[in-house]
## 1
Amino acid sequence: MKIAGIISIGNELISGDSLDTNSSWLSRQLLPIGIPTISVFTIGDDVKIISDTIKQALSKADIVLITGGLGPTDDDLTRHAIADVLGVDLKLNDELLSQISEFFKGRNINMARTNNIQAYLPESATALTNHVGTAPGIMAEYENKIIIAMPGPPAEMMPMFNKLVVPKIEKYGHGQVVLTQKMKCFGTGESVIAEKLGDLMARGRNPLVNCTVSGGIITLHIVAVAKTKAQAEDMIAADRDRICEILGDIVYSKEEKTLAEVVAQELIERGKTISIAESCTGGLLAKTLTDVPGATGYFTYGWVTYCNEAKVSQLGVNRDTIEKYGAVSQQVALEMAIGARQRSGSDISISITGIAGPGGGTEQKPVGLVYIIVYNGGAQKVHRFVFSHSREYARLRTVLTALNLLRLEFKD
Amino acid sequence: MKIAGIISIGNELISGDSLDTNSSWLSRQLLPIGIPTISVFTIGDDVKIISDTIKQALSKADIVLITGGLGPTDDDLTRHAIADVLGVDLKLNDELLSQISEFFKGRNINMARTNNIQAYLPESATALTNHVGTAPGIMAEYENKIIIAMPGPPAEMMPMFNKLVVPKIEKYGHGQVVLTQKMKCFGTGESVIAEKLGDLMARGRNPLVNCTVSGGIITLHIVAVAKTKAQAEDMIAADRDRICEILGDIVYSKEEKTLAEVVAQELIERGKTISIAESCTGGLLAKTLTDVPGATGYFTYGWVTYCNEAKVSQLGVNRDTIEKYGAVSQQVALEMAIGARQRSGSDISISITGIAGPGGGTEQKPVGLVYIIVYNGGAQKVHRFVFSHSREYARLRTVLTALNLLRLEFKD
């Protein structure tokens, strides 16, 4: 199996001014053709560091893909570094020079003298034509390995990779297909999932099952390596079924969907409408539910009853209930849910009241305390949580939890 | 001068499933304290590759910062790799174990057995307390160089870096001081700003003035390099004043504030309350205004009147107005603003009605059409925009524009 190493070049990348998205894109393209990436190096515009890094990458990888440093200015040094690694000189390529001149003529622009440098190639290397910009790519062989350099701007790099690089390297990926499938989970922690899945998550297993977490959403990545696409698909399907069986309702999507998308689909399929009465989340639940195109089909009314008076006048919450139990209480949550459902005429209502913080907490009612109710006119169940960390996190977790409670409602 | 190397660990990063934003953030924090980054390595969850890469990084850098691979599962191998580099064993740290148990107890969750591994440290290394999650960071010295490992989730990594790592490493940054100041602008394009600022944005100038754009918000970065902090601060202040003079009201913050924070401060200073009646933005404006802690001080009522019936029953919009002009019209926007202000009793109301798309557009009323009104009881001015691109972009641009209109209201 051939392995790839990726090098991203540019001072703006190591200063943090720009985010390198090229290497992530390249690894996503390489994996399905059977070439996994072993490492990504991000370095600045320094010819010695570039050539050292190319040598380093060549020591572990068979194919080294470089982006950046092919422009016309003094800080574009990739071609010099490749020549250095190959132990050859740069040589003017007349065909390239005329291609670059044509590029400028075609756009009615005078060609700056500095653009000449882009017509120079390391001896023994070949050029990859750039149909979008002036910087040609470079391809060279070195001790049975391949060095490929492409321009940094994604709009130039991507078509060059797809049209010129893939046809040259896909033969190295033969024999192996790598497929990845994501599954989304909510409602428990990473370590609980790891314990439940046990050996399924063992290192070195094929498929490999990885786990990443973001904002309480846990994503399982199933990576299968096989001889054919059909085999890899079968292996993934088998693992996916086993994981669903073990984790049950914790899995909310076998594809790469958001919780809001899953819930929206359930609402549309069942022909149900929903209204939202929220306090501490300040509109985030309504916003999240209406992120999905076509929300008109199920979302009707939303209230952000931030002050007590709004809860009373808009949802019909009893003033006495607020005085007796406080605005953040299961009693107020109940009256909010009832009021929202009645006044909107929706099939289902969700109410949220809580303390997002950072201020406003007490010993009995700490910051992060939240009550959530999903009400369909039947029995009411009050869900109480404490989400600490930060205002932003508490609000996000509350909204995801409300969507998840709604999803589970449909399971009954 | 000390130099940093950064290593990001995770199979999801080299497969391209997730984008590594940690290393870019870290280099941005390191530069102002005088520690430039020489290279960034992104590698998978393999103990041999991790320890090899740490050794490689140590060969060129004095401070090696690692993120990821500190979780409780079998694919979290950073602590093993550091022990390998240091040539020591992992040892159970009783204090860490009790900290981790406390973390779970505090949340009323049973601690999974796999979490024990997070209490193990390479001998001779010290732990960095994690106040947000369970994975402690690791700090170790190696031949006068420093290895620092932090958890991968940005919400855990960032506070750990700011609170615990910066105080330990800032002493290594002596020599040159690099200060960066951000200024935030809204209401015009990048090229207009570049034209107005002219030579101020010339390359190679010190301070260097850069420009980045995200969701319509333009951020100017003033980067000054000087011998002392005071010198750099003076240089930045001079540029900041010139930029404010040239751009005027386009600059909404001379610090790194959001539009919502700026508007919230204005509302609080003036003792004004606000209510929101929004349709196509589905709660996003209310959410954005209540992102700011202390929103109780100015935010009172919010309505997400997604369906026509909600506009009528909740805001008192005339049914005839909707029939005659359509829900997306300046007339309905006006009645929404009046209804919201009257029913909430707030000083100011904002109304939004539009077509977020992707469906629902016509020739007269295209997708992206939106009406916004900021109403304080005086004269009403209807603002009409068409924000194309995507549903997400149209909603975001609408909300930012509404906040900006409110900000400009206070300028009069």
## 2
Amino acid sequence: MTARPQEAFARTPEQLLDELALELPDLGGATGRFVRCVQTGNVVFVAGHGPVEKGRPVFLGRLGDGMTLEEGRRAAVQSVLGVLATLKDALGELSRIRRIVKVLVFVSSTADFTDQHLVANSASELLESVFGLEKGSHARSAVGVASLPYGFSVEIELVAEVDS
Amino acid sequence: MTARPQEAFARTPEQLLDELALELPDLGGATGRFVRCVQTGNVVFVAGHGPVEKGRPVFLGRLGDGMTLEEGRRAAVQSVLGVLATLKDALGELSRIRRIVKVLVFVSSTADFTDQHLVANSASELLESVFGLEKGSHARSAVGVASLPYGFSVEIELVAEVDS
Amino acid sequence: MTARPQEAFARTPEQLLDELALELPDLGGATGRFVRCVQTGNVVFVAGHGPVEKGRPVFLGRLGDGMTLEEGRRAAVQSVLGVLATLKDALGELSRIRRIVKVLVFVSSTADFTDQHLVANSASELLESVFGLEKGSHARSAVGVASLPYGFSVEIELVAEVDS
């Protein structure tokens, strides 16, 4: 039996993260009173993740109020990395993800800030880079909220389909 | 074999939209970096849709700040029509929808506006008109957010069950 | 055949609610134009529930604007009790719930209030008390929104897995 070429040369999501020089963050021990993801059938529901590094909240602030779009985009990337850390921890290998299904991006915003979709795009771009277009492209909502826990600028939750 | 009367005379969701003189909007080409819906198993997750006509955002503004409830209700209807355009595009026929399961309505709101449920009702009424009570009635949340992409007044996401 | 000890002595969620001296609220007749939950496969999607007692909204207000954290926590508990009333009504017995999968907690908040997770913890703690850690622990998001229907301070929606 011959390995199919696309599989032989395919890189894992973990390798692709490495190539992008991105690291899965240490989320720290505490989640308050909940768990970071729950699977039902082939579907995993991932809790809302804000940007965390070494177990501590980062990118605190509010879009439209002293925080730049570029900082918001980095906050979204860091939040997705936290989501991936949770999925890696739960699944063992990120390649067990068959499809990123749905992403919900909450952006702490003033009433005047209306570029939540641009903040969210950085999260979507990362998911497409790591899982490829076929598995990584997803349905998405992006909304501007009044405030988030710990003063997070971004919080991202996600639904994914995984193998059996 | 005789056609069962209720089926022989049943109208499709598309015909019911026609009778209501409602048209599925052209959503335009761009979604940023995501897709408009993703199916996993028999369940379709639809991305957040704001009100769009001929590929352009309409009903911009904020409830409680110069925008009337009636405009908000029309924004919600237009958002649902966008959701249906997406489902029609993905499924071919809207009759493939077995049940509207869950609707989440984000309403751009001032702190003083607390009639998000009345805005959302117009979306729910449309879904019941087009799919009938049995398939069209759904669980729903309606919340007031600080702001939405492009200055949308309303954004609606939806979960539906479809045939196999 | 001998009853397994843990089953013989296990208390139902209803009995545990009793022991906590908590009562499922009367949610009143009206939901606007939607239903309180919809099941698809083994998964139940529950609509957003604010705190209601005897069919009337309670705990109105906004965190960070005259409402204390403790009041917010009681609002979250009352919202979860409403969710459980809906599930009890739909399923007959709460013991038919195999897992609380995902909870989304909307907290009406000023821009300065960033303790949504502490408000949400009271909801999570109640779910764990009633269903036990194995079935009751769940993925969760908590966000601060501009306002909620009827002036609710909290609104909670939930996804649960139920038996076949």
